[in-house]
Design a protein that fits this description.
By secondary structure, the chain is of the alpha+beta class. It is built from 8 helices and 9 strands. Strands 1, 2, 3, 4, 5, 6, 7, 8 and 9 form a 9-stranded mixed sheet that branches. The C terminus is likely disordered.
Length: about 280
């Protein structure tokens, strides 16, 4: 949210319009930041915390450094109060990121001895002015994250800065492409993934061993009656050792017998293999 109202060069004073919640004074502030390389408005996605600088201001009554904040009054919305206080105390304007509201902190004012509730927003600075209402009583200082956290006087403001950094880290992480290393997949997940992408990996029908528990003699009969069965079986890779070892032995025996045949007998065997009787193998 950008400042749309006319900026006044005179800071608000007095407590006539001050908001209270169960006796606690309502305070609102911002954490002003900019990008170190361009100092211009740009997207937060993909940004690291060290790419940013944060603006702190000095206290009116001491050399302590803090983020701009002040009283939330009854004639303004919370975000409008945050913009106004930031302009009056630090002389910058920009976009209050309402959707990234940092939170509310309760603290006791040492100077006044009363309890306050502080509401904090991040503010992306779009313009830094040379003149502002409290220029003569405050100084400005741009610092990196670690430096800003170190010099900031108020512990609750440090916590707000930590929340900002945490939100930025989450946004950056969510923006990264998500990958799943192959070695992290379970066997079942790998099979499912390959099967879905390539139908060639679908499980082929398997011959049931128990349903095909043939003796050698029965197998010979089957091969004579239907020669194509021998070709089908002998071309198949041995997946079931107990069963296919028998097939292999029978095949070797058959081919050995075939090799001893005369050329004429061999031609007859090839031409009329389907009509050879059981006796030919006995």
């Amino acid at each position: 949210m950008a400042m749309t109202k006319t900026l006044s060069m005179i800071s608000r004073t007095g407590r006539d319009l001050q908001r209270y919640n169960d006796g606690c004074r309502q305070v609102v502030g911002c954490i002003p930041y900019r990008y170190r390389k361009t100092n211009q408005s740009c997207t937060v996605k993909g940004t690291q915390i060290d790419d940013l600088e944060f603006l702190l201001i000095s206290s009116q009554k001491s050399p302590r450094w803090m983020f701009p904040k002040g009283g939330w009054e009854t004639d303004e919305a919370l975000e409008d109060a945050a913009l106004r206080e930031t302009f009056e105390e630090s002389g910058v304007i920009g976009d209050v990121e309402v959707q990234e509201f940092l939170g509310t902190w309760s603290f006791k004012s040492k100077s006044q001895g009363t309890f306050h509730e502080g509401h904090m927003f991040p503010l992306l600075v779009t313009e830094e002015l040379d003149d502002w209402p409290e220029k003569t009583v405050r100084k400005r200082l741009w610092l990196k994250f670690s430096e800003a956290r170190e010099v900031c006087w108020h512990s609750w403001m440090k916590e707000a800065l930590d929340v900002f950094a945490s939100k930025l880290t989450k946004i950056t992480k969510d923006d990264e492409p998500q990958t799943c290393p192959f070695d992290e997949l379970s066997y079942e997940q790998t099979v499912a993934a390959v099967s879905n992408s390539n139908t060639m990996f679908f499980e082929e029908p398997r011959i049931n061993i128990e349903a095909n528990d043939l003796t050698c003699e029965e197998l010979r009969i089957s091969l004579v009656a239907k020669p194509s069965l021998g070709k089908l079986l002998f071309n198949e890779e041995p997946r079931r050792k107990p069963f296919f070892n028998e097939i292999s032995n029978v095949a070797n025996s058959m081919f050995s017998e075939e090799a001893t045949m005369t050329t004429k007998t061999k031609k007859m065997f090839n031409a009329k293999l389907g009509s050879i009787s059981i006796a030919a193998f006995s």
